[in-house]
Amino acid sequence: MPVSTREGLKDYALRKLGAPVVEINVDDGQLEDRLDEALEYFNINHWDGSERTYVSHLVTNQNVSDKYIPVADIVYGVNKVFPIYAGSSTSKNIFDLQYQLRLNDLYDLTSTSVVYFTTVMNHLQLLDTILNGQPMFRFNRLTNRLNIDIKWGTAVKAGDYIIYDGYKAIDPVSFTKMYNEPWLKSYTTALFKQQWGSNLKKFSGLELPGGVTLDGDKLYAEATEEKKDLEETLVGKNAPLEFSVG
Asked: pTM of the prediction?
């Protein structure tokens, strides 16, 4: 049966470890902590844990005063802040160079080489990069701030929009298929097993009624090795992302 909830993932991992036939000596609070760790690791490191996003932010007077814009917790990285144009330069007019190029050269596509147009447009883009540059920015997801090194109040004023390109974490509450992802189920089980072994290590060698002896060290070692193997499966198989989490 597919897992579609947080509680369902927890129950799946416990059943895989032997519950309810075997008593899993782990507190519910410990299980919740390990589950949080599994979900966070999945979001940061798994190729299906995040997705590319484009975010537009309406600048407020507070943003101008602070010289940064707030970023949501689900945003894990920012690749690029799109060029910011002040005033009327955001819209094309008859004196704009690209407007004149299209007016004079592209009135008839049958008589104009697309190669020439592409060359000119690349040249214009190069000039724009050299003369205007790209907005410089700094981002750390722990501060939830996107600092943009511009002249606030002049280059950008309240009422303008800032658009940035980045990656955001997949929310399992909205996209419940994440709970049923095989790697996440196996990783959650390994973390639960490791916690179980860690708890039992404190009573290692204790003989229970019936001649059963607890071996928390072996259980912990097995879980640690399983966890390591699962993490290594992501190395070299992960989809390349264009950001590094700061």
From this structure: 0.76
